[in-house]
Amino acid sequence: MSSAPTITRRADFPGLITPDGNPWHYLDTAATAQKPQAVIDAMSHALGRDYATVHRGVYARSANMTLAYEAARRRTAEFIGAKSENEIVFVRGATEGINVVAESWGGANLKAGDRIMLSQLEHHSNIVPWQMLAERVGAAIDVCPITEEGLVDLDWLEANLTREHKLVALAHVSNVLGSVLGAKRAAKAAHAVGAKLLLDGCQSAPRMRLNMAELDCDFFVFSGHKLYGPTGIGVLWAREELFDAMPPYQGGGSMIDRVTFEKTTYAPPPQRFEAGTPMITEAIALHAAIDYTLSAAGSGGMESLFAHESGLARQAREALSKINSIRVLGPERSAGIVSFVMEGVHPHDLGTILDEENVAIRAGHHCAQPLMDHLGVPATARASFGLYSDEDDIEALMRGIERTQRIFG
Ligand code: PMP
């Protein structure tokens, strides 16, 4: 195997041990990441000794909780290189973030005859909300193809975007193939026709350095649980002017300025988009997850996490490619995610045999059925890496695959 990975933090993750004390080779980080003790502790303290509501309390505990909740917003803004914490709306996850944009921005800005550009490799959560919007307003959807290697075909995108396109929505990193989008080029192409660009950052936020100004997108979403944080918290980023012009997504407490039965006025963003009691403990734990991730990344920052995980993906690709019955999908340079198919073995069977070896992979369509259709397979097996992954995980995967080969002859 080639270069050794530089980051191994397995000991920080209590979930990486089986109940009988053996290492658990968790290769499903693209679905959801395991949690470091620091995040579990932050969540536990926030739910226990520190717990109170935010924004309304007159007592000290509530005021402290408000400070912690708003500190999480500031930390998130710093983490993604946003200009201000007012550009950060906490949502339930990436799915909700995309739905906010589709409902609120899309509802206000798209009309019959307008077009939305997606790509062949999108996750269902970056397809279905746009289909629902398109149906509601009478807009149409176009699909940018992917290259043979598995990258969004930016030549095609540039050649086929028109003034009718009001929105381009693309995965920054594919959850199936690990392909990294040429985001700046996509932004330039979208802006050249006056369209907005939404980036689905679910798979890039945990493994890439992010800077909103450099990416030049208009909306960015990601989920906390893929970034070593808890479920139930995600982030929607947009510039303040864009949020300012958007109507609320949901109505309720906290999102208002003044309520009367005659007329209600709304709070400015980000509060306008955070109706109801927010995900207080989840936001605080997300803060801890960002701190943890950056400390694990060390002085090399997020770039070293990318190098670590893409290095493991390369090693896995090399090892898998040596097996005749295996077809490895996606580009050589993958952001820590490798999909493959094994001739004569359904990915679910492979996943079940690997489970017996304490190796957890994902088998299925990965919420990307249009991509499966394009690849001509019903499902793939997927191994995805996190900051805690190491060469032992790849060796365990390969041992399990060899056993599967013996079983299936
Ligand atoms: N987009 C991508 C690329 C993803 O990988 C995922 C999660 N698998 C999502 C969107 C949806 O994220 P969530 O389910 O956390 O809302």
Automatic annotation (TrEMBL):
Keywords: Pyridoxal phosphate, Transferase
Catalysed conversion reaction: (sulfur carrier)-H + L-cysteine = (sulfur carrier)-SH + L-alanine
A Gene Ontology molecular function term of the record: pyridoxal phosphate binding
EC number: 2.8.1.7
Domain Aminotransferase class V: 25-397
Single GO BP term: cysteine metabolic process
Required cofactor names: pyridoxal 5'-phosphate
Superkingdom of the organism of origin: Bacteria
Pfam families: Aminotran_5
Protein family membership: Belongs to the class-V pyridoxal-phosphate-dependent aminotransferase family. Csd subfamily.
Role, per record: Catalyzes the removal of elemental sulfur and selenium atoms from L-cysteine, L-cystine, L-selenocysteine, and L-selenocystine to produce L-alanine.
Protein name: Cysteine desulfurase
The organism of origin for this protein: Parerythrobacter jejuensis
